[in-house]
């Protein structure tokens, strides 16, 4: 241990960080996300890694962008953006497995100017538990 006092470094634990991040935007429930995507009002972005997608399946219509590429793919001004990333006004709903990593990802998108970015409460597991559609991964 370096002897540096956490109070002087501004360090926080992950629970406090999640609370701070989530207080900056309104998260979305699975049914609301499903309806927004069906109405063309939101882009669902699945950031789960391949093993989880292979194990559990896919959210129909969601764009798969693994977490380590998210900012590059969704930055409307970026040279590596996906075709759907056309505006900072895009409503993005980030989906991870249980709704934790997606909160940090949504906050990162806010820093890029995607002010309508949010994440799915409970992640993919809540989506599936709500009885929403899930596609098997093609063999």
TrEMBL record:
InterPro entries to which the protein is assigned, alphabetical: Rhodanese-like_dom, Rhodanese-like_dom_sf
SMART domains, per the entry: RHOD (SM00450)
Domain Rhodanese as annotated: residue spans: 38-136
Protein name as annotated: Rhodanese-like domain-containing protein
């Amino acid at each position: 241990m370096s002897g540096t006092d956490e109070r002087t470094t501004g360090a926080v634990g992950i629970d406090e960080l999640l609370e701070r991040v989530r207080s900056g935007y309104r998260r979305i429930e699975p049914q609301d996300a499903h309806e927004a995507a069906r109405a063309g009002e939101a882009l669902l972005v699945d950031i789960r890694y391949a093993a989880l997608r292979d194990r559990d399946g896919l959210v129909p219509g969601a764009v798969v962008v693994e977490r380590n590429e998210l900012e590059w793919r969704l930055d409307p001004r970026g040279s590596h953006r996906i075709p759907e990333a056309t505006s900072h006004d895009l409503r993005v709903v980030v989906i991870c497995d249980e709704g934790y990593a997606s909160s940090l990802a949504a906050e990162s998108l806010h820093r890029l100017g995607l002010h309508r970015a949010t994440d799915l409460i409970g992640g993919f597991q809540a989506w599936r538990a709500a009885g929403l559609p899930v596609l098997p991964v093609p063999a």
